[in-house]
Amino acid sequence: MTRLDRQFAFLAEAEKLKSVTRATPIHDASRPENSGEHSWSLALYALTLADQAPEGVTIDRVIRMLLLHDLVEIDVGDVPIHSQGGTAHGAEAILKAEAAAAERIFGLLPEDQGAELLALWREFEANESPDAIFAKSLDRVQPVLLNHQSGGGSWIEYDVTFPQLEERIGTKISRGAPAVWDWVRARVESWFERRGL
């Protein structure tokens, strides 16, 4: 296969992300979001909220991470953070399946390019570098805002309370984007208060 053959094979595979249904509905609650839409939305979040990134964060790298981070869902599917008490997302079997999916999907690319993108995906997953921490924060905030806009979305489905939201998601958002979490928290907390959650 030529370099272009491998690059287009990867791109064809990446199109499948549009068929992965997420637990979070889109803004008007008319249907679930798909993972391709989620990745695009996060890239736009990073571009728009770049001024909220801590010093030392490279937004171009963050955008690249966010465009790549969920490609593994082509093989593994979406794992909602609130499912099974919020523990499913970190389950060992899921982490292994995602790592294998990353190897397979990025392995479609020419070796040099595949290695570069796989390293970027792994950096995002490790959540240790400033770029990854900010990217993870944005990955957590977007579904919160969609659930809020759609009238509760997956919060209702998974019986989520505000303390659970703050523990599972708020702490992760505030780690990389504290002002963003403060803004979001002020808006979503009242939704839970009105429902006694």
UniProtKB/TrEMBL annotation:
Residues that span the membrane, as ranges: none
Gene Ontology molecular function, alphabetical: 5'-deoxynucleotidase activity; metal ion binding
InterPro entries: HD_domain, YfbR/HDDC2
Domain HD: from-to ranges: 14-181
Keyword tags: Hydrolase, Metal-binding
Superkingdom classification of source: Bacteria
CC terms in the record's Gene Ontology section: cytoplasm
Name of this protein: HD domain-containing protein
